[in-house]
Amino acid sequence: MRKLILTIFILSLSNAALSADKHDPKCDSPMQQDLMECAYNDFHQSDAKLNKLYRKLIAAAETADKASKSDDDNVGNYESDLRQSEKAWVVFRDAECARTSAPNHILYGLEGDLDYPECLAGMTEERIKQLSAVTPRGTSDGSN
User: Fold this and answer.
1) Is the CB of residue 41 less than 8 Å from the CB of residue 124?
2) Cβ burial, residue 5 (10 Å; 0-12/13-18/19+)
């Protein structure tokens, strides 16, 4: 009976551990390579969220373009403008992160290298906030 209770207890603990948020132990590691991998994973997660949002905005912009062209007002350039804006933003983000992390690399060596992926992730999260607040004219909420 004790073995059964102990087995049930251990299984419940392991199930609770599996259902908890997955935390990458590399993020707590003292090893530089692990920390870099963790920082780039954070960036890739943010980038995936941004890409998902961007696809939704492109679809909304296409709809807005079609609606504006059917109204004969010839203003339908939302999709093109969004694509140009995003390309310019990516160039800016990469250059800004390289600029701000370069001095730390020089001063701190490998430890300063963490600044670049952390900057990429941070700026990408900020871009998500910016784009989340934007809805092209002609879409469902009509606020812009």
Assistant:
1) no
2) exposed
